[in-house]
Amino acid sequence: MKKHRATIILFILPCVLSLFVMYLYPVVRTVIMSFFSIESVTAPARSWTFNGLANYISLFTSSAFLTALWNMVRIWLLGGVVTLALALLFAVILCSGVRFKKFFRAAIYLPNIISAVALATMWIQYVFNYDFGLLNGILKEFGVSNVKWLGTDMKFWSMLIAYIFGATGYFMLIFISGIERIPADLYEASTIDGAGKVRQFFSITMPLLKGITKTNITFWTITTTSFFLWSKMFSPVSSENSTLVPVIYIYDRVFGTASNTTRNAGLGAAAGVFLSVVVLLVYILLEKVIKNDDLEF
Amino acid sequence: MRSSKNLLTILLIHLILIIFSVIMIVPFAWMILTAFKTVTESTSVNPFVIFPSKWRSDAFITVWKNMNFLLLYKNTLLLIFWRVVCACLTSTFAGYAFARLNFKGKNLMFSLVLFQMMIPSQIFIIPQYLMVSAIKMTNTIFALVFPGLVSAFGTFLMKQAYMSLPKDLEEAARLDGCNILQTFLFIMAPLTRSTLAALAIFTALFAYKDLMWPLVINTSNKMMPLSAALATMQGQYSSNYPELMAASLIASLPMIVLYLFFQKQFIQGIATSGGKL
């Protein structure tokens, strides 16, 4: 029995110990930091001064944080609906027996293979370029005058469009794997019963994809809350309101070198804690709304 | 009547697919073509001037020299390699233990795994940065790998994989005199190869994409992975398109090559990681 225990420790210890040190301890530490006034992230704990809820209060009175939060909500909701709808649409189309399935699948997944930084560069420098960009070039053919895609008004939407294009392929692959697991005889039986493609989609595909849809929403939530790369690429030098998201807000306050923000590690920690709470609430809500019925098929 | 309607639907579907594929491929093709152009050609007002007048490799040579790509490749490969090794090792052992062994505090420990999976990474990043800088390890490969020493998602994935294996196999092995470690190494672990491959691909993709942690922890140009170096470069020479695109291409190359070789595993890997959650 003693030997048995040693084996179990060998199996479990590396994982649990690292989770403790690298993830649980940081959570506790961040929560504590969020109640202190800390100027520099590397300041020793001695120099911290307790200031209660002051960080949280200044967080919610800070227009920058509220803007960041609002942008994140819009990316999550609008971007999520469009991305997942497109992903589902293409998954259904590709699974309906079209020709060149492999080619189309690879093409739609393509943006995920290119370095994301390179992909963002390409959108910014080429597609959205004011003078000679692809979009303005096409618009010109239709007699529409050049649009400032990267101007303050449009930047958020341009970023969102680029992001959606890049993300669709990934979620499509997950939907495809779900659809392929639905047994073909269900469709055959319903065809015999006279159901059309549309009817089949709503009566068979959709209900049986519930679990996969939940997975995709969860993944989407994870990627949106840690949204950083695209925002950083669209505003590389200093953060702008149009592309500001919470992670950028935290990054600027804690590690930032940009001159337009003052460093405040305690505030950054408070923002991190608040975000985590929001995300946990979203998961709980998801769990309540989309019940896993564990459909056997 | 019916068949003509069907034909129309099929045409429409292919049209949508083709349009979308073109939208995906055209910018990528532009990236390749621009890398061979001169600066003036690349900023030509007519976006339909497609091919470079002459295929030049100047941009590639310049960025290759200026950006020390060999070093960046090395950093990125090491980052990916160690993250994959660490994630696979810790996850496969812990996943097996959570799925099949009984011990005190199992549920509590597993809730730690679930907790880490659900919480967004920005809550960890400040103390993680402090830990690495406290042991004076910033600007090292270790620093880059650090948050990936363990993978909660991987542990979860492997636990699911072990739970789906039949119990009799294990019992038979135990009756034949294998101890836990032998049963695990010779009987059970080989059966989870496909899930492990999925985890490796998932981990590699995320390590390759990660930008925030490398930007925070390794500020020295010499210790950056491709993503961070490229992002820094974009800010610096934002108007030399051929060079920018040449650098982007060189940075994307490793993943493109991997994808071409392991396309099946990539697609399966993503399907598995999504389906098991």
Task: Describe it.
With 297 residues, chain A is an all-alpha fold. Chain A has a single domain (56-289), classed as MetI-like (MetI-like fold). Chain A is built from 13 helices and 2 strands. Chain A has a two-stranded antiparallel sheet. In chain A, helix 3 packs parallel to helix 7 (155-180). Chain A is globular and about 75 Å long. The mean pLDDT of chain A is 85. By secondary structure, chain B is mainly alpha-helical. Chain B has 2 domains: 2-61; 68-236, MetI-like (MetI-like fold, Orthogonal Bundle), CATH 1.10.3720. Helices cover 77% and strands 0% of the residues of chain B. Chain B has 15 helices and no strands. Chain B has helices at 2-35, 39-42, 58-67, 69-100, 106-118, 122-134, 141-145, 152-163, 167-175, 180-191, 193-209, 212-217, 226-236, 241-261, 263-275. In chain B, helix 3 packs across helix 14 (241-261), helix 9 packs antiparallel against helix 10 and helix 11 packs across helix 15. The longest helix of chain B has 34 residues, at 2-35. The relative contact order of chain B is 0.13. At the A-B interface, helix 1, helix 3, helix 4, helix 5 and helix 6 of A face helix 1, helix 4, helix 5, helix 6 and helix 10 of B.
Let me know the largest β-sheet of chain A. Answer: 2 strands, antiparallel
Task: From the 3D structure, determine the CATH topology of the largest domain in chain B.
Answer: MetI-like fold
Q: Main sheet of chain B?
A: none
What order do the helices and strands of chain B follow? Answer: HHHHHHHHHHHHHHH
CATH class of chain A: Mainly Alpha
Tell me the Rg of chain B in angstroms: 24 Å
How far apart, in Å, are the first and last alpha carbons of chain B?
45 Å
Topology (elements, then pairings):
The complex is a heterodimer of chains A (297) and B (277).
Chain A: H1 2-33, E1 36-37, E2 49-50, H2 54-61, H3 63-95, H4 101-109, H5 116-127, H6 134-141, H7 155-180, H8 184-192, H9 197-208, H10 210-225, H11 229-234, H12 246-254, H13 265-289
Antiparallel strand pairs in A: 1-2
Chain B: H1 2-35, H2 39-42, H3 58-67, H4 69-100, H5 106-118, H6 122-134, H7 141-145, H8 152-163, H9 167-175, H10 180-191, H11 193-209, H12 212-217, H13 226-236, H14 241-261, H15 263-275
Helix pairs in contact in B: 1-14, 3-14, 4-8, 4-11, 5-8, 9-10, 11-15, 13-14
